Amino acid sequence: MARENILVVEDEEDILELVRYNLAKEGFQIGGVSCGEEAVQVVKAKLPDLVILDLMLPGVNGLEVCKTLKNEPKTQHIPIVMLTAKGEEADIVTGLELGADDYITKPFSPRVLVARVRAVLRRKSRQIVEDSSTIQIHDLVINPGRHEVLVEGRPIELTFTEFRILQTLARRPGWVFTRYQIVEAIRGEGYPVTDRSVDVHVVGLRKKLGEAGHYIQTVRGVGYRFRE
Question: Tell me: the pLDDT tens digits for 99-116?
């Protein structure tokens, strides 16, 4: 059985070695880089199974790396676990909204690190199975494998989060999702969330979909649903 390949992006050598040692001990194949520019190049070239990404990097910071990877079809499905210093709550929320899958605050327990990495990889495996089929509703087609949305045959460019919200709602037409349920569905449990962040993504999504935006209905006081 092939071992999962993990890329660690961390500019502090002692932390990089700590992460590398503890994950290698658990059987993972580990690579390491120390700057954002190199991280993007390595991820595109080797497509690791997961990226552990420090936010405070020289040059291109971790949030920019996350945004770049999650907005490109070739790399957007690679899970990202952020490493953050305590007190960087705004950066954590921004990272999660850009598409990061989890976060770990420094200083951290090696056992917690390994557990969180395994949990994210398990979610990824389940998601691949659940998300593989194409959804077609009238003139709207959602192809998860290609990360592609077509309206009347015309491709629509969506961010990672917009795509996942649309996919989540369209898989269960008529089902009402609260804002928190939407975030749970696209990120997993235990993430900071505000009603405002979901609403902003839905507004942008409807605008990009044009006439097809009417499929996404607001359920006042509750959340959203996809028109049956």
Answer: 888 888 888 899 999 998
